[in-house]
Structures are given as C-alpha cells and as structure tokens.
Specification:
Length: 428
C-alpha cells in the first residue's frame, strides 16, 4: 500500500495464475477464482467531535465461500484501497483452505487513520460500517475480525451494533473480541505464535537448532511481538526490528547485536507498534533506516508488517547467510523477488501458511461463541499447534515430492481444495 504503482490484487492473481497453469485448472474454475464472488463499497457519515460531518469510505470483499462462511479481518488504514482488500480476501480464501478449516475468504477496510481520530469517532466508524453491511455479514455468512489498526474494542462496538440491529445475542458474528465478552483465550498470541510453529518445523526439516539462529523482523505490532516472544523462548535471538514512526511519517530499524530484549523494547512501544526512537537510543539501540532490517546478516527474516516489502528492486540486499524467510505479513514478497529467492534456495514459508494462526484461532473463537462454551488457553494453543504443524507438513511434503517452491506447493493444496468445493456444489 506504500507504493502507488503496486497493485496487490494483480500480484495475488499472478500468484494464482502460476499455479492454475501448473495444475491445468479448467477455464471456468479459473475465471471464478480469479475474482471475488461479490464486493461492497460503502460510505460512512460520521459527525466529528468538532461538529462537522466527514464521509469515510469502506469496503467488504467476499472472495469465495464454497467451503463455508467467509472469514476475514477489517483494517483501518489511510492508504486502504479496493485492490488491497480484494487481494487480502483472496489470500484469506487460500489461508483457510491450506490449514483445512471450513471457511471461505473475505476482507474489509475503511480509509481512515485511527491515530488522528478520537475513540468516539472510531466508535462511530465501527458502528457505521456494520449498519451499511448488516444484511450481508453474520455468523453463518461472513465473520469479520481485527486487522491492521483495529483491535478488540473495535470488534466489540461492531458486535454491539450488529446485535442491536438483529435483536439477538450473536457473539459468533465477529472474532477478536475481548476475552470477557466472548473472545478466545490465546487469540492475541495466535498469529505470532503460529509464525513460530511453522518456523520451528522448517528449522527441523533443515536440521538447524533454534538456539543457533538469529533473526531480523519487519514490524513490531501484534504479530511481530508475539512471534519474537516465542522465537526467543525456543532459543533464537532477534537482533533487529523495524517499525513505522507516526510522528516522522517514516520507518526506522532498531538494531542491537546482543539481542533486542523483547520486554524492554515493548515497554517503549505505543499501542500501534511504534517504538520511541529516543528512548530506544538511550538503552543502547542503533537507529537505522526503515529498510535496514532486510539486509541484516542473520539466518532468518520475518516480514511481519505490510504487503510489497521484498521486491525485485531490494531482494538482492538479503544477506547470503539467510536460510529462511517466514512471511508473517500478507503478500510481503512480489513475484519478481520470489524468483530470486527460489534461485538462491532460501527456504520460504509463504504468508498464507505462516500467518494462518490468526484465522485458525478466530475459527476456534467462532466455534466457541456459537456453542457458548470456552476452552482453556493451553487447549486453544495446543489445537493451534496441531493445525499449523499438520498444514506445514502437508505443504512441505508436497514441495519435496514434486520439487515445488513452498509457495507454489501451498497454493497447489489450497486452490485444489477450493476448486473441488466449487465443483462439488455445481458452480463450475
């Protein structure tokens, strides 16, 4: 989203086309899956705190629901676009399919910047988004969740509005809720922990001990923070992280060769994942340009922020030491960069497998909310570990068997499952 020339939906389609060619997908199924089944563009009037009225533009895109209700987050971002949401909805379809949960893919967004909005104004956007879409979303139709710059409070406002409109208690309508209001234990950690469950399996396959590795991470939001936390727990050392600075409207990398010290860095981070660079400098961090995370001399790279971060223009900055790229973000690597990464034999764990822990735990929350019974945290994270491990092993086995790039193997499985569901329903 930070490059106007970049179209994430075209990238998602190109990734799909590559595998559709490999599996000789028929024309009708290909045409069906290249585009969303339906999409909604909405306008949300909000009376601001100063008494003026602003119109915020929003989206909900439902890519495919052949395997079950659509599922996907809603993000608030000032550079949100319809094509970004289309791409994310498509990736959600493949993500649910590759971990084999009975859901389809969707995504939502509002063009806004929560940094510059009061809590009351954010609440009005949340409620307005639900009012505009209440007839086409729901616990058995399309289930939203948090994404970039949205959180449990936003989800609770949306749930409250949906229940007011429908006159029922429907906690399964939305996931990522506060634990005391129908949310699932373990949901906060799920995406980041899922990244490390997948990474752990990759390290096993390559015969590398976690304690012998170092990593560089892009991002310091929810996904990156919990990925770093668990990675450190299994013995790894993160030496560099990058994040966006809202005040400077730019990004910085924070480096410490001895290891970043997760808790100390978390203590100087705002709720959007922005690290205070003055305080970081005071406790011994080297402050580098935002893209410096990519060129670090480490074993593992974890892009865990936004899409379009590893490109044909910067992929050659990746150190020859790097053995694994674990994509915690959605769509961080372009097809041009993919080709070079594949040629260099770097083991890439693709985004819609690596970060599927979030939607998997969202599915667990949805199940719990619908049956009004809740599991303990260890049980949730245990189920998550089993799902992520099983999905990784299936993709890795296919990649080895057919000599495929890991991303292509993941697409091969996901597209095959969705295509079969469409055929079974008689759609194609």
């Amino acid at each position: 989203m930070n490059n106007k020339a970049f179209n994430p939906f075209e990238m998602a389609q190109a990734q799909f086309d590559k595998v559709a060619d490999q599996i000789d997908l028929d024309a009708a199924t290909r045409d069906l899956l290249r585009f969303p089944l339906r999409e909604y563009h909405i306008s949300i009037p909000v009376r601001m705190d100063d008494g003026s009225v602003r119109i915020f533009r929003g989206f909900r895109v439902q890519h495919n629901d052949a395997r079950g209700p659509a599922k996907g987050g809603i993000r608030f971002h000032p550079q949100e676009t319809a094509d970004t949401v289309r791409a994310l909805s498509m990736w959600m379809t493949w993500k649910c399919a590759v971990v084999d949960i009975p859901l389809g893919g969707s995504k939502g967004g509002v063009i806004c910047d929560p940094h510059n909005l009061s809590m009351r104004e954010q609440e009005q956007i949340c409620r307005g988004w639900v009012r505009q879409l209440s007839k086409v979303i729901g616990p058995l139709v399309d289930v939203p969740a948090p994404d970039v710059m949205t959180n449990a409070q936003h989800m609770l406002w949306m749930l409250d509005e949906f229940e007011i409109i429908h006159g029922n208690k429907l906690p399964g309508f939305i996931t990522g809720k506060p634990v005391g209001m129908g949310g699932s234990l373990g949901r906060t950690e799920a995406t980041g922990f899922g990244v490390i469950f997948a990474l752990r399996e990759a390290l096993k396959e390559l015969g590398i001990r976690p304690e012998d590795t170092t990593a560089s991470v892009q991002g310091f939001g929810n996904v990156a923070q919990y990925a770093i936390k668990l990675y450190e727990q299994i013995g790894g050392k993160v030496i560099c992280v990058s994040c966006w600075d809202q005040n400077d409207q730019t990004s910085y990398s924070f480096k410490k060769e001895s290891g970043i010290g997760f808790e100390s860095l978390q203590n100087i981070t705002d709720r959007f994942g922005g690290i205070n660079k003055d305080k970081a400098r005071d406790i011994g961090y080297e402050i580098l340009p935002g893209d410096a995370w990519l060129g670090q001399d480490v074993d593992i790279l974890m892009p865990a922020a936004l899409e379009h971060q590893i490109t044909g223009e910067n992929v050659n900055k990746i150190s020859r030491r790097v053995k694994i790229i674990a994509e915690g973000a959605n769509g961080p690597t372009t097809p041009e960069a993919d080709r070079i990464i594949s040629e260099r034999k770097i083991f890439l764990i693709p985004d819609f497998l690596t970060n599927a822990g979030g939607v998997t735990c969202s599915y667990f929350e949805q199940v719990q909310s619908n049956m009004n019974y809740f599991w303990e945290k260890d049980e949730v994270l245990g189920k998550l570990d089993v799902k992520m491990t099983s999905a990784f092993n299936a993709v890795s086995e296919l990649a080895r068997k057919r000599k495929l790039y890991m991303r292509d193997a993941a697409y091969y499985i996901a597209i095959g499952r969705v295509a079969q569901a469409c055929k079974d329903r008689g759609w194609v």
